[in-house]
Amino acid sequence: MVKSLTLESQSPRMQALARLPLFFALAGKRVVVSGGTPAAAWKVELLSAAGAAVEVYAPDACDELLEIAAAPPDGTVVIHPRPVAAADLTGASLVIGACEHDDDAVALVAQARAAGVLINVIDKPAFCDFSFGAIVNRSPLVIGISTDGAAPVFAQTIRAKIEALLPAGFARWAETARAWRPLVQASGLSFSARRRFWQTFARVAAARPDRVPALADRAAWLANADRTGDGGTLVIVAIASNDPEMLTLRAVRELQTADAIVVDPDVPTAVLDFARREARKLMLGADGGADREADAAMIGLAKNGKRVVRLVAGALMASAIARAIEAGRRHGIPVVQLGHAAPRDDSDDDESTSAPTHRNSSSA
Fold first, then answer.
1. Per residue in 115-126, pLDDT tens?
2. Cα separations (Å) of 175 from 170, 213, 338, 355?
């Protein structure tokens, strides 16, 4: 049915990226560092913390580097008291250079390129294949921040802001997720049920980050995910503001877990930045002539077990909400309404009166 619709299936594309954020798996892999300066020492500590086997080539290693080599955070650190040679780069995963002069950087880059190895020259972005961003460490939850070298101090300020917002307990939850993932994968639950399990996991982690997740939690959440069934749902989100930051936390969660999103033409495109990338977006035409087809599409998707979010906005928002609620009721699909059908005071987050056929909530 969806393919026959006259709706646009292309959602707004991602804007240009100055840098592509990548996370290297370096455990046990060889990384070469040329130079023994304090700046090199920080990179060596970072690489060792990621599990790399770090080999440093430096005729004169600073005291900080010697201390790290004596007690590395994780991966081994070996210091060779001589300059790096081209042969030393063979088989390396990455090369880091602490080069005082551009001529030295040019030579090291040429050696790295000849060996087919990516290189970073500290504080010389023109010579770099990649860069190190500011890091928020809640390992295995790791957040990297980059300003493309434009404002490193600004990146550190952003890091400090995120550090303050991100509870230390998230590290424990992320580690638990890593331990539980293969067990949940082997549980025999359907894909939808497993996703419900992880949604519960994430919701509890966000609400109680200092709590220690227990095996009893896992058993209860698996059982609940299995009982819930694979029926589809319809969530209607009323967009009463052009500022996407006015979305409630609940609305953001729904967008991030949706299988499909039906979007009214008056919905700000920035709202879709919060949506799950894999979700299919059905964009209504500006003339509103595809409204009925949109209702049919979202009902068809929900009846096939999909989580559908309908974003409504504009002068006809109230009628679109009423029609979607009626369609859901008629087909026995659970419907939840988030937000109000008209612009309102943003402090008004009380739950509205619920009709017997759906739940209406503007709270997070």
1. 999 999 999 999
2. 8, 10, 33, 42
- Compute the distance between CA of residue 334 and CA of residue 43 in angstroms, rounded to an integer: 53
Read off the pLDDT of residues 202-241 as tens digits, 9 standing for 90 and up. 989 988 999 999 999 999 999 988 876 667 889 999 998 8
Q: Is 40:61 a contact under the CB 8 Å cutoff?
A: no
**Residue range 267-288: average pLDDT?**
80
How far is CA 110 from its chain centroid?
A: 35
0.90 surpassed by pTM: no
Q: Where are the beta strands (DSSP E) in the chain?
A: 30-34, 53-57, 77-80, 94-97, 118-121, 134-138, 141-145, 233-238, 260-263, 280-283, 307-312, 335-338, 359-361
User: How many angstroms separate the CA atoms of 60 and 84, rounded?
Assistant: 12
Alpha helices in 258-357 (DSSP H): 291-303, 317-330
Give the torsion sign (CA, 253, 340, 272, 281): positive
Asked if CATH classification 3.40.1010.10 holds for the domain at 231-361, the reply, yes or no, is yes
DSSP for residue 8: B
Give the H or E element holding residue 113.
helix 102-115
Q: Are strands 53-57 and 77-80 parallel, antiparallel or unpaired?
A: parallel
**What per-residue confidence (pLDDT) applies to 341?**
57
Collapsed DSSP state (helix, strand, coil) of residue 156: helix
Q: According to the CATH classification, is domain 30-132 in 3.30.365.10?
A: no
